[in-house]
Structures are given as C-alpha cells and as structure tokens.
Amino acid sequence: MQRSSLVFNLLQRQLVHQRQRISKNQMINKVIRSQLPCDVFINHRGNDTKRTIASLLYDHLTRLRITSFLDNKNMKPGDKLFDKIDSAIDECKIGVAVFSPRYCDSYFCLHELALFVESKKKLIPIFCDVKPSELRVSKSNNIQLESKQIERFNFALEEAKHTVGLDFDTNKGNWSDVVTKATDVVIESLIEIEEAQIIKNPKKLIIP
C-alpha cells in the first residue's frame, strides 16, 4: 500500500508539472504570435461582432496558421492603443472589414478603415446585417467629429461600399458558411499578393 501511494503521488506530481509546462509554452507561443507581423487585420465593431463572426474568423485563420490581428487577441496591458493598431495595419497584407448596423458609431472602426483605404491595401468587406447604402457618417452619429474627419471617413466608406464583398444575415445565414467563404477569399488574396511579389522580385524563387 505504501509503495502504491508513493507511485501515485509521483505520477500526480509529474502530471501537474507537465500541465504547468504546457501552460507555460502556450503562454510563450501566445506572446510570440502577438509580436509577429500579421497577414490579416480584422476590422470590426466589438459590441456588434467580436463574440461572433470576428472571433470565429480569427480562430479559423489561426488554425490554418494565417497570422491575424484581433484587438482582444493581440493586445496586452500596457500597449498604446493607436500605436499598436496603426502598426498592425501598416504591417499586414490585407484587411477584413466586418460592417454592422452600428459600425459607423465607432471612431476606431472608421479610423482603421480610413488607414486601410489610404494605404491602398486590399480590403475584403463583410456586410453583416447591414446594407452598403446604410453606411454613412454624419454629425448625427454618436461620435464627435470634425468636418474633415467626416469627409475622410465617408470617403473610406464609399471605397469599401464599391468593393465586392460578402453579405450575411444573422437571422437566416449559417456562421460556418460565411467564415469559410471569408477564409477562402483571404487565402486567394494572400496567394495573389505572394505571386505578385515573386513576379516583382524573381530572386525570391532562388533556393540557397
């Protein structure tokens, strides 16, 4: 009995140690991922879509080893909000803009969208429970904006509205379908960007 008890305690300690090591490795990997340049930036209004399509898309892309940026996944205490977001947009290859009914009430959403349009990077719109024609910024929105900001944001919205995107109705659509479709478009876009870079710089094909 004493020997069995010792063996059990030993195995239990080993299991605890293994779990701690796995947990530590997961934490290290999470920190490393948060520091890597992202391939895809997911622009969205948190209160509307963070717990649904934005997180589902992020998780799906991550499982496919496509590095993505989602604020609550990549930012940590101490990060400067605008610096982190602006840097992520500058480094990423493409953006996914998830438009929702109250999207235009968020300064951050509009700021990120404007940065994308101004950078001329590819943007994939997903119109979730909202029609493109309904997206507009004015002084009636729940944010205080100067006239120049309203003009800048509306220009970005117009560019997005005239870009072919995905439409999704949460009352009728299937979450899995829209995430899969969005992922397919992201992958195709990343391949196109990679091919264009290779054509521009054929030396990338040379294997040392």
UniProtKB/TrEMBL annotation:
Pfam families: TIR (PF01582). It comes from Solanum lycopersicum. InterPro entries: TIR_dom (IPR000157), Toll_tir_struct_dom_sf (IPR035897). Residues 36-161 form the TIR domain. It comes from the Eukaryota. This is TIR domain-containing protein. GO terms for biological process: signal transduction.
